[in-house]
Design brief:
Blueprint lengths: L3 E7 L19 H7 L6 H10 L8 E6 L5 H6 L3 E6 L12 H12 L5 E6 L1 H11 L5 E5 L13 H12 L5 E10 L1 H4 L6 E11 L16 H13 L5 E4 L3 H9 L10 E4 L2 E4 L4 H8 L7 E5 L7 E3 L8 H7 L4 E4 L2 H5 L6 E3 L4 H7 L1 E8 L2 E8 L3
Parallel strand pairs: 1-2, 1-4, 2-3, 4-5, 8-11, 11-13, 12-14, 13-15, 14-16
Antiparallel strand pairs: 6-7, 8-9, 9-10, 15-16
Helix pairs in contact: 2-6, 4-5, 8-9, 10-11
Length: 381
Amino acid sequence: MKQFKLGLVINPIAGIGGSVALKGSDGIGIAEQAIALGATAKSNTRALLALEILLPYKENIIIYTASGDMGEHTAKALGFNTQVVYKLEHRLEHRPTTELDTEQAVSACITKDIDLLLFAGGDGTARNVCHIVEDKFPVLGIPAGCKIHSGVYAITPKAAGRVVELMITNQLVSLTDADVMDIDESLFRQGIVKAKRFGEMQVPSELRYIQAVKSGGVESDELVLQDIAADVIAKMDDELFIIGSGSTTAFVMEELALENTLLGVDAISEQALTASDLTEPQLWQLIQPYEQGKVKLLITLIGGQGHIFGRGNQQLSPRVIRAIGKENIMIIATKAKLNALQARPLIADTGDSELDMVLSGYLAVITGYNDQVLYPVASPQ
């Protein structure tokens, strides 16, 4: 087996604003604000999950990466042959990395004639990579951001590792051009989704592991959504309802004539708004006084991808989900949205592998009034 040259670039602050309801990490001062609110970076943990899949082949892999938390620490912690090709000596250690760091790290990796560039981040990171790479050679993203609209990412961190494994073991992997998409985070924080295509990059195409570009927009079949909303509202009693993000859950709030945070997490009790745009710590504190079964979680799936946890709703942390309980999770979606997945399972990617396993299996999805289907939920592969 020939030596596989892997470029690795991690955006250490990707998604850091998710758990504290900042909707991402793009923008001046956002990372510092998130840290001040108690957020912790998780992109290196996500990258670790991908690289662990490659441990059986580490004698045949050399990783070219950037210093510190941009790749060096994670690669060396797992014992990979690691060469630092970009150093962060130009900045103070406590300052967050920048877009320029990502771009310069990618440029440095390219000079080593790598076989694949593996990067961890969100759509902003994909844009930075695309600015340097364009469609010149294969790249693959490890999802670590709040918003993942681009088609250059694997569906989960472990799935990214599986794709690289296929390449290392010389299995047939097609290359395809995938769109790099991003949205305006300043509008995103106001509940407005405005996506734009910024280019395309080559990705190793394995449909089990690579996600589709996110399907956006409000559901057109208003009658079906009304039926779904009517079913959910009929089930409301004296419980606290946590309302997840998305246009489908937003329709339920509209039917209740309540303001909602389209891209955040709200809470209602007795059909009245209790709290809006909750951070993870706020949500954790809110549910503490309630007995088991007295808190319900209403969520939907990301159109075209199937994620129910781990994308855009990091406020719903593993401890929050455990406290609520699997049996108290209500998933809503139209049958058209489920059919668009083409039999692919829903994905629970909470960042906690044990919880992901607990959530796997078949869950009921409310698809209309007194109408539901059983649909498979998979843990990350």
